[in-house]
Amino acid sequence: MIDGHSRGLVAAWRVAEVEVSIAGDLDAWSADQASRVLDDAMRLRPEVLVLDMAKCCSLDVAGAMLIMQTHQRMRYAGGTLSVRSTLPQIAMTLRAADPHGVVQVVPAGQRQPRHAAGGR
Length: 120
Known about the structure:
The protein is α/β, with parallel strands linked by helices. The protein has helices at about 30-40, 60-75, 90-95, and strands spanning about 15-25, 45-60, 80-85, 105. The protein is built from three helices and four strands; from the N terminus they run E-H-E-H-E-H-E. It is globular.
């Protein structure tokens, strides 16, 4: 939608899916840089933000909290966060930080079904 009024909506658009890959460690030392990359990805207004952690070696509390915050921001913006991981310890750390299971973790190489991403 485009509205030419100075106080109205200028444009409304969304990108279907944006994928961000994390390689190495997602920890207290790298979380700030990862946060900036995720901010840039979210500026594209994706319906689904995929965080591919297949090449992530370790995840600590700071990294897990960044993922939880990103999930909350995506939800607030009307989107969904999906995390892909191969290492069981990554999924275990996320589950510990997410006792209610709100962040979707799928095995690497598998895509989240479209209906699970809010029916889009």
